[in-house]
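Researcher: I'm preparing a figure for a lab meeting and need a structural model of a single chain. I don't have an experimental structure, so a prediction will have to do for now. The sequence is pasted below. Please return the structure as tokens so I can convert it later.
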Amino acid sequence: MCDKCPFAKTRMCAVPGSGGGTSGVVFIGEGPGANEDKAGLPFVGAAGKFLDEMLHDIGLSRDHVFITNVVKCRPPGNRDPLPEEVYICTEAYLWRQLNILKPTLLVTLGRHAMYRFLPATEKISEIHGSLMYTTNSVSGGELRILPLYHPAAALYNGGMRSTLKEDFAQIRNILGTCRG
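Model: Understood. Here is the structure written out token by token.
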């Protein structure tokens, strides 16, 4: 059991991630919410149902992708994780997961996850759905990043639903390019 950060005292379950990863796609959100904290699995609430729908639309399922978060435990009161908490969890777990999975594509869900891989000067409103590149700070290898809005955005703003679905369709195009 991890006790590297304060979340260990307030969480119900750690949520390391789930899925098969056979497609080479890893989805990364910010952190678990209340439903995920109870279940020990990522994206199981309403945002997760929309994520499942979008996966289905491009011919994938949770069995084919790996889904995780930047931090593996729910922050108290569902607050944003502090930079030092993100650093601890990323260094302890996320980089190791990525080095084991060796994904073809990282899909960041929301700006908080995006900022773990891309500079904070980037704006999700300007680059969502665009393939970006960065360097894996552990292995030195290149990472392909597809920043997308978080699926929960569509729950609060119905107009975001079509934007997310359009951006999500890029995954199929990118995978075809990467495999070709």
